[in-house]
Write a structure and sequence with these properties.
By secondary structure, this protein is an all-alpha fold. The chain has a domain of about 90 residues. About 60% of the residues lie in helices and about 0% in strands. The radius of gyration is 31 Å and the shape is elongated. The termini are far apart.
């Protein structure tokens, strides 16, 4: 089974569309804070905003008559645009937490053990000694 040129071009575009958002998430988000975070929240991070913008910018010529004579470039832009757009959407929904790629798991607060106050009732009556005579008395 031979791989034709069109499949290789789509694969190259898709590979670039996955690598660029990953590099943005791993290195750029942790080193250079985005000024758009205050306005857009997690969607303003570089790893979410730039892939969405470049993905849409790559999909426009692949669906229109722009670059009509360059079919291989249109196919590569299509592969890049779809994967970049989806990676940007995913990075906006699951952002980097404190520079880590894995999600931060919050630990439950440890509560101190409840002290039980010993009362005269607890010390004198055990469940085996409870009778109706003691309850009525």
């Amino acid at each position: 089974m031979a791989i034709d040129k069109q499949t290789m071009v789509v694969g190259a575009g898709a590979g670039i569309g996955v690598v660029v958002p990953w590099v943005l998430k791993e290195y750029v988000d942790t080193s250079y804070p985005s000024p758009l975070v205050g306005t857009l929240g997690t969607w303003g991070k570089w790893s979410a905003f730039l892939p969405i913008v470049t993905g849409v910018a790559a999909l426009v010529p692949s669906f229109t008559k722009i670059l009509n004579k360059k079919r291989s470039i249109k196919i590569m832009l299509f592969g890049y645009g779809i994967t970049s757009l989806l990676s940007g959407i995913f990075n906006g929904m699951a952002p980097v937490a404190m520079g880590l790629s894995r999600p931060v798991v919050r630990q439950a607060a440890v509560r101190p053990a409840v002290r039980q106050v010993a009362t005269q009732l607890n010390n004198s009556i055990t469940p085996t000694r409870v009778t109706t005579q003691k309850i009525l008395a």
